[in-house]
Amino acid sequence: MAKINVNGRDREFDAEPDTPLLWVLREQLDLTGTKYGCGVALCGACTVHVDGQPVRSCITTIDTVGTSEITTIEAVGRTPAGQAIQKAWLNLEVPQCGYCQSGQIMSAADLLKQNPKPTRDQIVEHMNTNICRCGTYQRIVRAVERAAREA
């Protein structure tokens, strides 16, 4: 058995070193908020934070994580910015199908950590690495703007 730190807790798992972090989170640790989208790091549905940095968990192998601190969508609301983002997402009814939303929220949390008061252009630029199949991009931008005002 190996250990990783996820959402502030040490968790045990049993996987080959080249197993993607996504599969350990979902299949072994039952943290299913992080989604599988494309499998090649293009869509962003699998975004988690490793030592505070956004990474695509579908291509991040478990052997590269080591003792890093991993934060998933299940814990993003523990910060004031994360709470503000989640509240704005709900109030503005951002999700349509909702599949990409955990990755969108993780990317938005990263943006507000780096830049608590981003401009609209900065939001668009930062969030453009996440794909929304339903095209709720305008609602996503408005939600990040609101979260920035309220965080």
Question: What keyword list fits this structure?
Answer:
single chain, 151 residues, alpha+beta, 5-stranded mixed β-sheet, 5 helices, 5 strands, 14% strand, globular
Describe this structure in words.
α2 crosses α3 (101-114) and α2 packs across α5. It is built from 5 helices and 5 strands. The protein starts with a strand and ends with a helix. 37% of the residues lie in helices and 14% in strands. It has helices at residues 21-28, 80-91, 101-114, 120-127, 137-150, and strands at residues 2-6, 9-13, 47-50, 53-56, 69-71. It has a 5-stranded mixed beta sheet with strand order 2-1-5-3-4, sandwiched between helices. By secondary structure, it is α+β, with helices and mostly antiparallel strands. The relative contact order is 0.16. The mean pLDDT is 97.
